Amino acid sequence: MQNYRNSNLIIESNKVTPDKITWKCPSNIALIKYWGKYGLQLPRNPSLSFTLTHANTETSITYAPKSEYGISFDFYFHGNKRDDFKPKIQNLLEKTIEIFPFLKQLHLTIESTNSFPHSAGIASSASSMAAMALCLCSIEEKLFKPIGSQEEFYKKASYVSRIGSGSACRSIFPIASIWGEFAEIKAASNEFGIPAENLINPVFQTFHDDILIVSKEEKTVSSTAGHGLMEGNIYAENRYQQAKTRMHFLLMAMKSGDLETFGQIVEDEALTLHALMMTSNPSFLLMRPGTLSIIERLRTFRRETKIPAYFTLDAGPNVHLLYPEQFSDVMDEFIRDELSKYCDNYVIKDMVGKGPELI
Ligand code: 2P0
Predict the structure, then answer these.
(1) Is 274 near ligand 1, meaning CB less than 6 Å away?
(2) Does the beta carbon of 276 lie inside 6 Å of ligand 1?
(3) Is there a single domain that holds both residue 154 and residue 253?
(4) Tell me, what CATH number does 140's domain have?
(5) What is the mean pLDDT of the chain?
(6) Ligand 1 within 6 A of 314 CB?
(7) pLDDT tens digits along 226-260
(8) Which of 34, 111, 187, 279 is the most exposed, having the fewest neighbouring CB atoms within 10 Å of its CB?
(9) 347 and 218 in one domain?
(10) How many domains in the chain?
(11) For the whole model, what pTM was predicted?
(12) The dihedral of CA 335, 337, 343, 345: what is its sign?
């Protein structure tokens, strides 16, 4: 077990110079899905994701000393004070206070902007919690000493991100990440994500992910509630086994660059995720008619053109279209002419990316 608790991280005098730290962190899209958790956001099965580029959160934390002792912060989203977003951050700070005890000595002004609509089934909690975690680790380094090598810094940031939101721990790494124990990969852990860039064929490193926004409306059931419903789901145990088997075959396909097997597993995973929602008690349904229309149209298009374009879904109605860089022009045309009519006027043209960036 990793133990990042450190009671020595206390500021000796109150002579801290106020300073500001900013990280931009991308979202990620799971190919093997995390759905079901226990304890402090520990996953029931391993997951694998692509790190994205354009769907991201930029977060600044300005910190200043204060006389009273305790967690205190203000939160601004796109320049507006948003107290309704505070509980999720309060939760992260409370749950990591033994890792960063100096936070009780500071007042934080947290300013965040998202490049995509909040709560539209794009993992906004992943990029936002990962950006927060990176800022907290950087503040520790500014006030104390370096956490260690770059690898150790990112491992700690990933661990802290996970506490904020499970899937966030995968956003820390470039290209692709694995989170959750998996017998074939000794370094894989339930407590933090690990880089998976070196496990996959270069064709995936420039993969596109066009996110077709079918609905911008807030989800009816949060992911946290959805994870909770896995506890009573009669398919849960089989599902957790299935995720491990699929992980094995997906990694094989991604290593060799076998796009057809890749696509088949990724699409099966997306539909399994939504089937688990539909078979929860109470059941819930996050796909919309437009989601199904896009999937059907894509499958016909693939049959006719032989272009290796596949879909995946997050916990929401929006469709992620995954395809190799070389088909970008023809996919643009296909989306514009045939799929945009199912969208809520919005497509995020994203691609696999280099991970977070200190601004
Ligand atoms: C994933 N999702 O692997 C899965 C697939 C959505 C669909 O993890 O409760 O926001 O904060 O740990 O990470 C979304 O759930 O949930 C998610 P919490 P999170 O990306």
Answers:
(1) no
(2) no
(3) no
(4) 3.30.230.10
(5) 95
(6) yes
(7) 999 999 999 999 999 999 999 999 999 999 999 99
(8) 187
(9) yes
(10) 2
(11) 0.96
(12) positive
Q: Which amino acid residue places its CA nearest to atom 15 of ligand 1?
A: 223
CA–centroid distance, residue 316 to ligand 1 (Å): 11
Q: Considering the domain boundaries, does residue 168 fall inside one?
A: yes
Report CA(120)–ligand 1 centroid distance (Å).
Answer: 13
Does 298 share its domain with 240? Answer: yes
> Phi-psi region for residue 36, left (φ > 0), alpha (ψ -120 to 50) or beta?
left
Beta strands 106-114 and 72-77 are parallel
Q: Tokens 């945009």 — which residue?
A: 340
- pLDDT tens for 258-301 read 999 999 999 999 999 999 999 999 999 999 999 999 999 999 99
Tens of pLDDT, residues 341-352: 999 877 899 999
* Residue 183 and residue 43 in one domain: yes
Residue nearest to atom 11 of ligand 1 (CA): 165
- Do 33 and 181 share a structural domain? yes
CB-ligand 1 contact for 33 (6 Å cutoff): yes
CA dihedral 217, 28, 296, 308 (to 10 degrees): 160
Q: Is the CB of 35 under 6 A from ligand 1?
A: yes
Q: Which domain holds residue 255?
A: 202-351
Rounded CA separation 334/150 (Å): 41
Give the number of the atom of ligand 1 that is nearest the alpha carbon of residue 162: 12
Query: pLDDT tens-digit profile of 169-184?
Result: 999 999 999 999 999 9
**d(CA 35, ligand 1 centre) in Å:** 7
Peptide bond into 282 cis (omega under 30): yes
